[in-house]
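Onboarding guide, step 5: your first structure request.
Type a short instruction followed by the sequence, for example:

Predict the 3D structure of this protein.
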Amino acid sequence: MSKSQHMKFIYCLLISLFSVTAMAQFYDPDESINGEPWLSWKRVYTGGQLGLSFGQLTFINISPDFGYRITDRFSAGLGPIYISYKDNRPPVYSIKMYGGKVFARMDLFKFLFAHTEYQMLNVPSFNFVDQRLWLNNVWAGGGLSQGSGPMRFFIMALWNLGPDDSIFRSPQITGGVGIGL
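The system replies with structure tokens like these:
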């Protein structure tokens, strides 16, 4: 991979760190799940990241989340990850990354939460043409949320604590709106 291609790859990764998070269904910390059976659809929520940019630089990040409220304040979940980046300027450069994640989130207060995530991404190899490798990363941090009822706004910052932290810069900052279904 040439230095130009290497810089484009890093640029793609930096763009992915600033994608917007949108929650399709978000739980309200004021809404108690006490009394709900352990296996209840009221404990399930979905959301994730959706990042789109088109033009000379095309960027697509699709990373849905599927979570389960274990207690009123603690939830855990998982989700797939797909990231595509293409620079349409000569020489045309394109990469695709895919993988998965598992996460845990703890509401510390109504407006403050802690978040941890383990992420595995399959990315193109820097050293070998047409070969791919798996990157393992551990993200930790937290965020602020505000809102009432089914709608919440939030911003979250995560730091990469994993062994492949040289590619993914910290902090990763995401934000969005949560709207209950």
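Each response can be followed by summary notes, for example: Confidence is low (pLDDT under 50) at residues 11-27.
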